[in-house]
Amino acid sequence: MIIKELIKNSLFALALMATLISVYLLNKDRDYNPFLQKLNTGTEVVTIQELKGAHKLTFLYFGFLSCPDVCPTTLGNIASIFKEMPKEKLDQIAFVFVDVDPERDKVEDLKNYTSFFDPKIIPASIPPKELDLFTRHFGVVYMKVPLDSEMGYTIDHSTDIIVLNSEGKRLESIHHNLPRRAIAAQINKMFDEN
To answer: CATH fold of 34-193, please?
Structure first.
């Protein structure tokens, strides 16, 4: 009888602890503000709050240095659009390349990579635990996929460009597989509507 009572009380205590831990973790995520997340750019630390306050449109693209096709294609298209854009519009855009492989990618390498495409592209490194919260807030998915190669793994990730206006309101995302002209037209439309 005493053993049954001890087991019952132990199970109750474990269930209570699990509930309290779950509540703590859920509330911890609720307190997280992605607009105040510190983004290491290699030369400074900025937040989305600062960027959106200084720009009409803020673009967030999530990728990694070893990405074989989607990231370089997307950044190449954006760089091409930026070259054709009038300076007064270009000055009102912040484009952030958020790295989803912080364990392998160094911020200095991110800076070299993004500047190869366009110096306007801001590299951003976030520690892994905070990166999970940041990506979750924006509905971005990424995961390691093991490889039988020297690289060891690759990253599968969301590929759309997230767009925020100066108030932080999320606008229609830009799909990575759109033709360059369609992306440029969508950006121009966002300028007209915001």
So the answer is: Glutaredoxin (3.40.30)
DSSP code of 35?
G
Distances (CA, A) of 29 to 23, 108, 133, 135, 179: 10, 29, 7, 12, 37
The whole-angstrom separation of Cα 86 and Cα 110 is 26
pTM of the entire predicted model = 0.83
**Residue ranges per domain, the chain?**
1-31, 34-193
Span 5-61, pLDDT tens digits: 545 544 444 443 444 444 445 445 678 999 999 999 999 999 999 999 999 999 999
**Whole-angstrom Cα distance, residue 142 to residue 64?**
10
Residue showing tokens 């001890």: 6
Count other Cβ atoms within 10 Å, centred on residue 88: 7
Task: Tell me which DSSP letter residue 38 carries.
Answer: -
CB 113 within 8 A of CB 120: no
| Cα–Cα dist 162/82, whole Å | 17
Question: Over the stretch 134-181, which tens digit does the pLDDT of each residue have?
Answer: 999 999 999 999 999 888 999 999 999 999 999 999 999 999 999 999
Could you write out the DSSP letters of every residue in 52-108?
A: HHH-SEEEEEEE-TT--SHHHHHHHHHHHHHHHS-HHHHTTEEEEEEES-TTT--HH
Query: Residue 77 to residues 72, 90, 181: CA-CA distances in angstroms?
Result: 8, 15, 9
